[in-house]
Write a structure and sequence with these properties.
By secondary structure, this protein is an alpha/beta fold. It is built from 7 helices and 7 strands, in the order E-H-E-H-E-H-E-H-E-H-E-E-H-H. It binds 5-O-phosphono-beta-D-ribofuranosylamine. The site of 5-O-phosphono-beta-D-ribofuranosylamine (GRF) has 15 residues, from helix 1, strand 5 and helix 6.
Length: 197
């Protein structure tokens, strides 16, 4: 089996990144994590990845004169790792159209809502404010429109009486860690291409 080479883009703690790294340790998993790139040097996930022996890089957009130049350097790094697929995992920058189009069909994201509901930020607060009975998470392809790409997998989580954004987020995170490795497995194995592209 030739395993797909995957880079993960993060900005913070990287718990979804860790779930992908763990899944990729299985000998029959069709992807390997070859690099982790952060737009914040302080992202806790960078140290976790480095401790696993995975290549890491950090790149602050503020150091570049434009988003395009920042993304050109990201592309160079990903190419230097010979990446086939990109997973966004808590990467808190909106990506430009050129970068997104370059990775069309090969870049996925995890979003903490049942898309198309609650695109963007503060999804748990907004679901609670609406009195939603069910909330959840989605792994989807990345397209130029924010959180608009085709969904690959979703998990529903009931909203419980007394839930706060934190308790709801914690229950959903457990599901994120389950569906993200499964979605990457589906993409890397080629299972998805027939149905979604
Ligand atoms: C997760 O809730 C994910 O759905 C969202 O950002 C958060 C990242 O958490 N896109 P982590 O860095 O993976 O722990």
């Amino acid at each position: 089996m030739i395993r797909k080479r995957v880079a993960i883009l993060i900005s913070g703690r990287g718990s979804n990144m860790s779930a992908l790294i763990e899944a990729a340790k299985a000998p029959d998993y069709p992807a390997e994590i070859v690099g982790v790139l952060s737009n914040r040097a302080a992202a806790a996930g960078l140290a976790v990845a480095a401790a696993e022996g995975i290549a890491t890089a950090s790149l602050a957009q503020s150091k570049f004169p434009s988003r395009d130049m920042f993304e050109d350097v990201m592309t160079q790094i990903l190419e230097s790792w010979d990446v086939d697929l990109v997973c966004l995992a808590g990467f808190m920058r909106v990506l430009g159209e050129d970068f997104v189009n370059r990775w069309e069909g090969r870049m996925i994201n995890i979003h903490p809502s049942l898309l198309p509901l609650y695109r963007g930020l503060h999804t748990h607060e907004r679901a609670l404010a609406d009195g939603a009975k069910v909330h959840g998470c989605t792994v989807h392809f990345v397209t130029p429109g924010l959180d608009e790409g085709a969904p690959i997998l979703q998990a529903e989580v009931p909203v419980l009486p007394g839930d706060t954004p934190d308790t709801l987020a914690a229950r959903i995170l457990i599901e994120e860690h389950r569906i993200y490795p499964e979605a990457l497995r589906m993409l890397a194995s080629g299972e998805l291409t027939a149905t979604l592209q």
